[in-house]
Amino acid sequence: MASHSDDLGHREYIARSHERCRNYGIELDRVYSTRILRGPELTERLESKRDLIVATEPFVNQLYGFVKGSGFFAILTDEEGCILKVIGDEDILSRAFDIKMIPGAYMDERSIGTNAMGTALTENMPVQVSGTEHFIESYHRWTCSGAPIRDADGKVIGALDLTGNCANVHSHTLGMVVAAVDAIEKILRIERYNEELSLSKQYTETIIDSLSAGILTTDLDGTIKTVSKQAAEMFGYEIPEMRRMKAWQLFEGWEKIKEAFRAKHPFQEEDVAVNAQRNKIRYSLSAYPIFDPQGETKDVILVFKELRRVRKLANKIMGRQAIYTFEKIIGRDKSFLRAVEFAKKTADSRSTVLILGESGTGKELFAQAMHNQSDRKEEAFIAINCGALPRTLIESELFGYDEGAFTGAKRSGQPGKFEIADGGTLFLDEIGEMPLDLQTRLLRVIEEGTVCRIGGTHDIPVSVRLIAATNKDLHEEVESGNFRKDLYYRLNVLPLVLPPLRERKSDLPVLIDYFMDRVSRRLNKKPIRLPLPYLRTLMDYEWPGNVRELENLVELIINAEALVAFPTRKGKETQRTIIEMTSYRGGEIVREAEILSLEEMERRHIGRVLSINKGNMSVAARILGIGRTTLYRKIEALDIDCSDMGQCSESEQHLAATAVPF
Predict the structure, then answer these.
(1) CA separation (Å) from 447 to 383, 490, 532, 553?
(2) What are the respective helix, strand and coil percentages of the chain, to the nearest 5?
(3) Which one of 228, 305, 611, 614 is CB 3.0 to 4.6 Å from 284, fit for a cystine?
(4) Superfamily of segment(s) 12-197
(5) 2 pLDDT exceeds 50?
(6) Does domain 205-313 sit in CATH 3.30.450.20?
(7) Angle of helix 546-560 versus helix 508-523 axis, rounded to 10
(8) Which strand (E) or helix (H) includes residue 47?
(9) d(Cα 446, Cα 217) in Å, to the nearest integer?
(10) Which residues lie across from 282 on neighbouring strands?
């Protein structure tokens, strides 16, 4: 057989990889990875790699944010090449999923041949693989850029990759991946450094650095030696009274601290139940040993912090925030403005909100705006998509888990989204996708205001404003037995219905203007004024993808510097409206197939403006920026037929005012 890399003639790592693939006996017509984890195996793998997934999540999302809408998707794998996460544009993801590039699929060279992830892990360096550089033919459509991820010890723990259509190959793509991996590795090193720094803190440094926290010192028998004023206020006791108590009388977990010290393990930022004077609450506890000259533990410093304060800081560091306000939500349609006003009025309510609307209508935008309008705006805004997480992950994500709850669980356990959102807002998108048994747990949290972690025995009080959203008809889901009736009525206290774009077409002109300005600024390109016939075609379109589809279309026009053909819908029959491709030159759109004289362009443009305004001379003159007398003179001079004209709608007048000659 001829060498598969004979015609490549460049990068040596490609030739080495192809040689390995031939030795593995990989077929050129192989389509899928030969190893794909599913079911419990995949769940166990995702749980065991949870730390890697969580640590890289903001960087993977940011990396995808740079290329969103350009036909790329980002992939995170573990050190063996098993895909842990995939995020990208819907159209290219569907093609990737067709050939099983899904979570659980192994992308190592032995399983799928030469590719950026597997080859980067094997070569232990960043690589780019495009087109026929892939060994198997089904991957010739892709361009892939991947780099290995190393922990603080330099050990490879995974790989990050950007994959897109082969036509979009660019060396800068690999640079973006390498930059993201560098940021991830720096964060991992910082986390290691902070852990080591915390373990080495001395007695006096701990006191000074933790003045805002409650501080106790005890001996190994649990006898309390000192109590800070803040600690006494947090526990609700007088200082002399606390000094007569033992440590284990104040909180649960004293024996765990002693066990951690004996095993030379840190005990930091652990959630513990505290027996305060009035009730049982939870604090974040860190314990630090004080050593005698012989290196033996003599005393213990206990530092208690409010969980809300700790998690608020974590939210700032991890970038969890709501960025949209009602001022940033665009629309003038009466039904849309009624929805905005209802959302504003109920923003401060403690009642649950259920946002109903089709995909792309802006449900999360409204949730963020309501949070920023409320008295919780300084607290956390946490969003979770109930339809995007595996069944086994969504429970631990929402409710958290205690130590030993399942295989791969963190030793210290982990708070769920309800705890993290305590004091703030929790947005549950696609609530209709939540499994029935979890619906029961969610109902209990809403009714009782407490959450119990998986494997836990204590109820944790939480104060969370819950906003749920769905594009499903939950009433029909209740009737079909897919959704609990009692939960439906608990969620549907404040129903907020967002109209689809096809029902608020009067907003199209202002939305087009807004997206044209925003996208052109982001892409550093000039905005394009669309011709009137094209704008009228947009008004006739049904917009099944709603505002999101409109924004994507505007971005495509600006990138292509050309008008784009798209389907229009009339009644039950879908037709293809073909818009002749145009080019954008020097600030205006020019028809390629027909060059018109200025006189003919003026005649056609005035005729169209008059036609749209049904012969209303005053409105037409105002739109054209000329006097009525001048308009009458031009009509006569250009021989424009004004017969058979009536009145027009306000939105059509806006379109005429923003149109350019075509």
Answers:
(1) 20, 8, 55, 44
(2) 45, 20, 35
(3) 305
(4) GAF domain (3.30.450.40)
(5) no
(6) yes
(7) 50
(8) helix 39-48
(9) 38
(10) 273
